[in-house]
């Protein structure tokens, strides 16, 4: 019987991270704490930047946007994962699966473009400081943010369209804890070779080329730092190092997963956990614990009882 004439799948079943109930309880406790810390840390950064006039600079404007994206990115997958760790039946409707897939790629792509823009901002600030006010002003940065959300939406729509155009008539078991394009299209009742290549050419190319652009910009920055004073070099390296750590933590897993057209997704669960759960948690700690200006602003706001 033709696949298109078979009963369409109405829900998917997740295999989750493990079938050991002891590990599920431990994972639930650990990931719940990490999710709460992610929300608290990133909200704290946004509130600090909004309520501190001296942090109304372009760097902190981008940082507040990064915190917002991290909150959204982790909220797409973590709550559903925590629910799956508590219940034996780990299911999601077809429509909710597609929605999760859409927003996952929207926020992930937005973060990729934002990190690239932040690298360009550091490049202009360090390598062409005299031209910085003209090249990077608030109007330009708002336009950058608008473009990154537009590009993320287009990318996500492409991924979603390629996924829903395939027929799904069974099986309906996803070897993961969330809906993403690679594990979902494996369940399609047709040959997905062409679709897989299109997906890799879309997601993989965006991740890889943005990462290469970031590496190139930081290479130029490092070369230019030789001409600066020791104090200026130290401050620039401190800022760039924090940014590059975030870039490596986020881009590494994305490139690993989306440049493999026929990967075994079960072997990639650890990598997926890293970029959906761990990275959004680490971002606020990487930026705030090493930034005296942000820590000073938080202390001042606490004294004003803003956080109470």
Notes on the protein architecture:
The chain is mostly helical and 308 residues long. The protein has one domain (3-303): Rhopdopsin 7-helix transmembrane proteins. Helix content is 72%, strand content 3%. The protein has helices spanning 21-50, 58-86, 94-127, 132-135, 138-164, 181-185, 193-224, 230-258, 269-288, 292-303, and strands at residues 11-14, 91-93, 173-174. It is globular and about 65 Å long. It comes from Balaenoptera musculus (Blue whale). Putative odorant or sperm cell receptor. The chain crosses the membrane at residues 25-51, 98-120, 140-158, 206-225, 237-258, 270-289. Belongs to the G-protein coupled receptor 1 family.
Topology, number of strands: 3
Order of helices and strands: EHHEHHHEHHHHH
Quote the CATH topology: Rhopdopsin 7-helix transmembrane proteins
> What would you call the structural class?
mainly alpha
Broad CATH class: Mainly Alpha
**Biggest beta sheet attributes:** 3 strands, mixed
Radius of gyration: 21 Å
> How would you sum up the global shape?
globular
Strand order of the largest sheet: 2-1-3
Fraction of residues in helix: over 70%
The overall number of domains is 1
């Amino acid at each position: 019987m033709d696949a298109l004439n078979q009963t369409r799948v109405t829900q998917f079943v997740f295999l989750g991270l493990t079938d050991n109930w002891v590990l599920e309880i431990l994972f639930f406790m650990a990931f719940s704490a990490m999710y709460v810390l992610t929300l608290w840390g990133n909200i704290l950064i946004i509130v600090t930047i909004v309520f501190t006039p001296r942090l109304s600079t372009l760097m902190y404007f981008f940082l507040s946007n990064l915190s917002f994206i991290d909150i959204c990115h982790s909220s797409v997958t973590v709550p559903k994962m925590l629910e799956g760790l508590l219940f034996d039946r780990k299911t999601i409707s077809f429509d909710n699966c597609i929605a999760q897939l859409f927003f996952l790629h929207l926020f992930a792509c937005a973060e990729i473009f934002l990190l690239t823009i932040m690298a360009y901002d550091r490049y202009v600030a360090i390598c062409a400081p005299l031209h910085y006010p003209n090249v990077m002003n608030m109007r330009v940065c708002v336009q950058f943010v608008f473009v990154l959300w537009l590009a993320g939406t287009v990318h996500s729509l492409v991924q979603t369209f390629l996924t829903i155009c395939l027929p799904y008539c069974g099986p309906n078991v996803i070897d993961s804890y969330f809906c993403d394009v690679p594990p979902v299209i494996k369940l399609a009742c047709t040959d997905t070779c062409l679709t897989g290549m299109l997906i890799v050419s879309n997601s993989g190319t965006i991740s890889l080329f943005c990462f290469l652009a970031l590496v190139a910009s930081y290479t130029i920055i490092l070369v230019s730092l030789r001409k600066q004073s020791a104090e200026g070099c130290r401050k620039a390296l401190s800022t760039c190092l924090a940014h590059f750590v975030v870039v490596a933590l986020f881009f590494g897993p994305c490139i690993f997963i989306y440049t493999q057209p026929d990967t075994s997704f079960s072997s990639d669960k650890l990598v997926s956990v890293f970029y959906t759960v761990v990275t959004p948690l680490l971002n606020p700690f990487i930026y705030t614990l090493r930034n005296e200006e942000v820590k000073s602003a938080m202390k001042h706001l606490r004294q004003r009882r803003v956080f109470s």
